[in-house]
């Protein structure tokens, strides 16, 4: 059940992740949040592997992500795991979890094969309030890929 197939327009998903990670920027931190929104927020509690951990191309890696969220602008929302390369190309199916207001802690788990055609794997974790057209505040986690 993909995030886009459940009714979120492609333009809305692209607005979630556009502009939050510049390509090949060595000063960009391994994990960060985009500018905060009013009425909802998401924060990284823990992730395995740790941000910045080199990943071997072609290997299967399990990601375990724990986040805290707060949501007051809607009664429901969705937290999404979006895996992309450094050129913002999606590299794995999206993982979604529905959440409810006012907030809480959520753990998501996914296993993906590290792409062998990329220099970096990026994990975007937005909180998308119900009926939102544009969002911000997503967590971005970066991993270099070893070839």
Summary keywords:
single chain; about 150 residues; mainly beta; Immunoglobulin-like; seven-stranded mixed β-sheet; three-stranded antiparallel β-sheet; 1 helix; elongated; disordered N terminus
Can you describe what's shown?
By secondary structure, the chain is mainly beta. The chain has a single domain, classed as Immunoglobulins (Immunoglobulin-like). Helices cover 5% and strands 48% of the residues. It has 1 helix and 10 strands. Strands 1, 3, 5, 6, 8, 9 and 10 form a 7-stranded mixed sheet that branches. Strands 2-4-7 form a 3-stranded antiparallel sheet, with no helix packed on it. The protein is elongated, with a radius of gyration of 14 Å. The model is unreliable at 1-23 (pLDDT under 50).
Q: Can you lay out the helices and strands and say which pair or pack?
A:
Layout: H1 10-17, E1 31-33, E2 40-48, E3 55-56, E4 60-71, E5 76-85, E6 95-100, E7 103-113, E8 120-125, E9 127-129, E10 139-146
Q: Radius of gyration, Cα only, in angstroms?
A: 14 Å
Mean of all residue-level pLDDT scores:
87
The fourth-level CATH homologous superfamily is Immunoglobulins
The ordered string of helix (H) and strand (E) elements is HEEEEEEEEEE
The total beta strand count reads: 10
Q: How much helix is in the residues?
A: under 10%
Name the beta content range: over 45%
Major β-sheet annotation: 7 strands, mixed
**How does the overall form come out from the CA principal axes?**
elongated
Q: CATH class, anyone? A: Mainly Beta
Distance between the termini: 32 Å
Q: How does CATH name the architecture?
A: Sandwich
User: What class would the helix/strand composition place it in?
Assistant: mainly beta
**What is the count of distinct domains?**
1
Number of helical elements:
1
* Regions with little confidence, pLDDT below 50 for 5+ residues: 1-23
The CATH topology corresponds to: Immunoglobulin-like
């Amino acid at each position: 059940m993909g995030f886009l197939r459940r009714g979120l327009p492609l333009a809305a998903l692209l607005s979630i992740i556009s502009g939050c990670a510049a390509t090949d920027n060595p000063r960009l931190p391994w994990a960060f949040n985009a500018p905060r929104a009013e009425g909802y927020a998401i924060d990284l509690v823990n992730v395995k592997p740790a941000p910045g951990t080199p990943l071997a191309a072609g290997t299967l890696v399990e990601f375990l992500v724990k986040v805290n969220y707060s949501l007051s602008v809607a009664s429901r929302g969705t937290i999404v795991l979006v895996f992309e390369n450094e050129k913002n190309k999606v590299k794995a199916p999206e993982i979604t979890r529905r959440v409810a207001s006012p907030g809480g802690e959520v753990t998501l788990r996914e296993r993906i094969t590290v792409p062998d055609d990329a220099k970096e794997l990026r994990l975007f974790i937005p909180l998308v309030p119900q009926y939102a057209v544009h969002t911000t505040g997503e967590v971005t986690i970066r991993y270099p890929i070893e070839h």
